[in-house]
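Case study 2.
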Amino acid sequence: MMQLLSATVVSASLIAASASGFLSESGKMKLDASRFQSEISEAMGMALGCGGQVGEKDLVAIEQEMQPIWRSLHKVSEDRIDRRSLRYLVHRFFDRRSALHIRGFEPSRPVNSSGWGDVDIFSQRVPAYVEAVLESKHRTVNGFELRDAAYMVATIKQLIFDSEGNILQNAYRFRSIATTRSVSVAEVTSLVSAYLVHWFVGDDDESIRILLSNQSLLESSIPHWDKLVSMGEGQARALEYERRTQPLNMLRDGASRPGHNAFVSQFSYEDVHRMVGSITTSFAAFWESECQSMKKALVDMDTHHTGRVPLSKFYGSALDTEWRFGESETYLRELGAIDETSSRGKQVMIANYIQGASNCIVSSTHYLVCCVNECEALLGELEEAVGGPVASTEQILNIVSTSSSISEELSPASTGVLSEQLEKIAVQHDGRVPLHGRLFAQWLHYAFPRECTFPHKAGTASKLTPMEYGDQYLAQNDDMKLQALNNSDLPIEVGQSELQWMSQWSEEEELVSDQAMRNFRAPWEKRGYAASAAMLLLVVVALALVRSKGKGAQSPEDWPSSKSHFV
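Prediction:
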């Protein structure tokens, strides 16, 4: 609901002053194809050592951070992964570290897909361009090594760094401060406030001007505005303290300049750039209280612990007190946040909704800043313990049942069913469970429905923000009232079978690795299974013929042909 907040509450506040909304179409990021390509090329050059911010120390640090996920990925040859696995690894790196969802790297997106909006189409060039450059480095070798993944991460970090610089320069211009002069702590606070509004709003200059010229409007429009601005002052004070107490370390790390007087509270443009960069990577943690407040409101409506809230309740709360739950049914469906398989009616899936694009507070050209993915810690714990792409059911159940990385506990009533489902997954994969497959992600969802998202098949759910989706993202009041009338609470003691709690489960597998997926064969595709099925069908036909003899003999022409057995 964070993007809905920006698009509704603030635009309502501005309506008297401006015909355009806070995040109106005119406020979208203005994209230029040649400029975008140039940014990617420059960032890639810096990542590969052609000048810039990235050095060997940075690449090694990235590799070390990615190691647990890397070890658990399917390898195509020696110690290399395929294209989809590379994108998946990069997505997980930024999601785990900063809750940043990098555009073009979403696991739910089919590789080379298009049609999710202008910003999204441009963003697809990032992975494609970097992959092409990396592939040209080793044409005769199949797949990507860990260093290639580090280069891609470094490239994206450089793109984010550059985009922060562009926004910061706009903030300097708005405050009429030259980027060449040093600024005081008070000026840092003023610059950070301008930066944050530019960051939230995009290129809507009129809305930016109105907000920054009206402090009371700003404070009423953006939750915790005073705390957000204090982040800037806090960053400046922290840098000031480190310069005074660790001068040599600050010089070595580039956070201080030779000859700088550590007892003078003055900060360069590069200093402020470093501060706003820290805000980008830590903002999700700062904003997590808002995400948890929203989750609590949903959990309170999930009386049967299914991780689902009836759509009638969802809209009923929006009409009563919970203004945040206002997405339209069609937009929720686009986000993959609705379960429509139960006889209970349409239900909003808590984890999918929380992770949806409407709850990402910042939307930029290259990334979204979203709520923390609570399932990430558990998956990371599994990868660390297993150390490979597959695990036994016993190993998984042992890790999951004793994990401290997730707040939910396995329900005793569901443990037996979940164990059976995990065994079925293992049967499909020769007795072992792939950690990076749709079926296991689906199992995690049903084990921890409030923390782990339901994994839709690739291409069936999108990461469109409200403004990218269009005018229909917001539910109409009459539609919400109509849905709210369908509310019929079930008794709290109703069992899981009556709730149809796993009605959305499907047996369709999708593995992160394309090569692993090509090698995978569902049980009904395997020779032994097909032969058994054919034999069973022959037996059934033979029994039918035997029974028919009691009713009178049939001529050979009346017998079913052998071909018809397999049609």
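The radius of gyration is 27 Å.
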